[in-house]
Write a structure and sequence with these properties.
Largest sheet: 6 strands, mixed
CATH architecture of one domain: 3-Layer(aba) Sandwich
Structural class: alpha/beta
Distance between the termini: 16 Å
CATH class of one domain: Alpha Beta
Helix content: 25-40%
Strand content: 15-25%
Strand order of the largest sheet: 6-7-8-3-9-10
Shape: globular
């Protein structure tokens, strides 16, 4: 980029106004969230609202705090004694960081999809039935109905309906990821948390998962962690760009990707393309 073009580029961004998001119904609000590990400040004054029935992508380089933010939302930070968490996370007006409520019940509001699928060491059927039984359902016919419904919801039913009693380990890794998603949906969550859910998958399986997310947002709110810019461009309704534990920019993808306001975001876009 020569000096003239560079100057024009800078001036254009400098005078381009930030496109304001229309007010949307939010399902989750984060206020002044900080996470420390001994002398390391992992998350710094995070303030964020997650719109309902949208895909919010947490974007940024590896180690920027995306996964820690996801764990904070799901209270998985409780599992790490070295972490000190402060602030507020409201899910439907309940402050999950400052409550005496049952933590497993709070987590049931959120389905979690990890980088690598971790099906239970039981049959395909029992993997999904496990989530259903957590909701207190005991009737066999109702469990059967819900198992089929959730497997259909993730596009897996026709592939496994004749081998429901087979081990989940017999499935391909892409099928296992969809099975884990079905198990998560079985507890009727309000929010689906996905931590780089396609990083271990082949391109075909990744495309299937991405298409599923587009359909699922009709009924669920999705928060997706990724460092892959192209995936964020394909899926995001709302983008939160993070770096060094801070939110640098956030907004619609057309806003952030076309009119980045910070040098950090501009550099990330150049490196990611």
């Amino acid at each position: 980029m020569n000096a003239v073009i560079s100057e024009t580029f800078t001036k254009t961004f400098a005078r381009t106004p930030i496109i304001k998001l229309k007010r949307q119904e939010s399902i989750l609000q984060i206020k002044d969230l900080n996470v420390h590990a001994k002398n390391h400040h992992i998350l710094k004054n995070i303030n964020l609202e997650i719109p309902k029935n949208k895909i919010t992508v947490l974007l940024g380089p590896s180690g920027c705090g995306k996964t820690t933010l996801l764990k904070s939302i799901n209270k998985l930070t409780d599992l790490y004694k070295e972490l000190k968490v402060s602030g507020n996370i409201y899910i439907e007006k309940d402050d999950i960081l400052n409550t005496q409520r049952n933590v497993p019940l709070i987590r049931q509001k959120m389905g979690l999809l990890s980088q690598k699928p971790y099906p239970l060491p039981v049959s395909i059927y029992k993997n999904v039935a496990y989530g259903i039984k957590l909701k207190g359902i005991k009737n066999k016919k109702l469990i059967d109905f819900n198992v089929e419904t959730k497997l259909r919801e993730v596009g897996l039913w026709n592939e496994v309906k004749d081998r429901l009693n087979s081990s989940a380990d017999s499935l391909s890794i892409g099928q296992q990821q969809r099975l884990c998603l079905a198990r998560g949906l079985a507890v009727k969550p309000h929010i689906i948390l996905a931590d780089e859910p396609t990083s271990a998958l082949d391109p075909v399986s990744s495309k299937i998962i991405e298409n599923l997310f587009r359909k699922l947002k009709e009924h669920y709110t999705l928060i997706l962690v990724t460092h892959v810019l192209r995936q964020a461009q394909r899926l995001a309704d709302n983008v939160v760009f993070m770096n060094y534990g801070e939110i640098i920019e956030q907004g619609r993808p057309d806003e952030l990707f076309s009119y980045p306001q910070t040098s950090q975001m501009k550099e990330y876009l150049v490196e990611g393309n």
